[in-house]
Design a protein that fits this description.
This protein is α+β, with helices and mostly antiparallel strands. The protein contains ten helices and six strands, in the order E-E-H-H-E-E-H-H-H-H-H-H-H-E-E-H. The protein has a four-stranded mixed β-sheet. Strands 5-6 form a two-stranded antiparallel sheet. A hairpin with a 2-residue loop joins strand 1 and strand 2. Helix 1 packs antiparallel against helix 2, helix 2 crosses helix 4 and helix 5 runs antiparallel to helix 6. The relative contact order is 0.06. The protein binds zinc ion.
């Protein structure tokens, strides 16, 4: 994702934080400063957000490491102000595997909540949810409730939450994938509608979540439709047979001109018949950047 910084790497998976996250930190700092004008409150608030997002990273790693066991790689994990996103290379084909991957995230939160509860109970410091405040209050208690809420929220049976995937996987064990997705998406949109209506009377924030859930369901149904449309069709039927080729001896500017004048995004390079390479707009662009950088470095040396 653009505008993201890499902050860590776990099991070969890069963990990135999106620039908008800084805005969230600033907002949290500001809202903690206002009530009492105390820098201690600001530090507490920022520390809490960092702890919160560490929990989110652990949740996403739960998905990613479970997927890894089934041979599915994760491109990266990015932290956005709304939460974390683990970009898996694909969804496991086997419904039982998708079920395990989807459940692994919330399972991390259940485990963390249980550990925190045990720690708090040992010191008789358990705070009821109604006594938890945004500013101040017991740090570990707040973290425990965060884990409980994350587990419950993510298990809502609606896309794009984990619960939506759990529901789809359970259905897909008994029926085909497309039908399972359509039913799960329908249930998700029903929940979104309910949230939206409830939000109008209770909390406008719910309307925002409802919108997010509604779009997630529609997107998931669309993707399943495409997957099923492509299922069982040989590549020969979707490939284009109208393309032009190059030979290694031809000039690169010709390749560029051809790429720019046609709808093809890549050109095969043939040496007297066999394929020896591919020219794409992206790698031509990269080559140009490297050339420009080398020029920039060479020029001062000439004087
Ligand atoms: Zn999750």
């Amino acid at each position: 994702m653009k505008w993201s910084w890499k902050i860590a790497q776990v099991a070969g998976i890069g963990i990135y934080v999106h620039a908008t996250f800084v805005i969230l930190l600033a907002w949290v700092g500001f809202s903690h400063y206002l009530p009492r004008h105390s820098w201690q409150d600001v530090a507490d608030g920022v520390l809490f957000i960092i702890a919160l997002f560490t929990i989110v990273v652990l949740h996403e790693l739960g998905h990613a490491l479970t997927a890894k066991r089934f041979g599915v790689r994760t491109r990266d994990i990015t932290l956005l102000p709304i939460g974390g996103v683990a970009r898996l290379e694909r969804i496991p084909d086997e419904p039982r595997q998708e079920l395990a991957v989807a459940l692994a995230g919330p399972a991390v939160n259940v485990l963390l909540a249980a550990i925190l509860f045990a720690m708090l109970a040992a010191g008789e410091r358990v705070t009821a949810l109604t006594d938890v405040t945004l500013v101040g209050g017991d740090f570990l208690s707040k973290l425990m409730w965060v884990n409980v809420s994350l587990a419950l929220f993510n298990l809502l049976p609606a896309f794009p939450m984990d619960g939506g995937r759990v529901l789809r996987a359970l259905l897909a064990i008994r029926m085909n994938y497309l039908r399972a997705t359509q039913i799960a998406a329908g249930i998700g949109q029903g929940i979104a509608l309910l949230f939206g209506l409830l939000g109008l009377f209770v909390n406008p924030f719910l309307v925002f979540i409802a919108l997010f859930v509604w779009m997630g369901a529609a997107q998931e149904a669309g993707m399943a439709q495409m997957r099923s449309a492509f299922g069982g069709i040989p590549v020969g039927q979707v490939m284009t047979t109208e393309f032009r080729t190059l030979s290694p001896g031809e000039m690169a500017e010709l390749a560029l001109a051809r790429l720019q004048s046609s709808t093809c995004r890549s050109l095969p390079v043939l040496r007297n018949g066999p394929l020896v390479g591919i020219v794409t707009l992206e790698n031509a662009g990269e080559f140009m950047m490297i050339q420009a950088a080398m020029h920039a470095r060479l020029l001062p040396g000439k004087t």
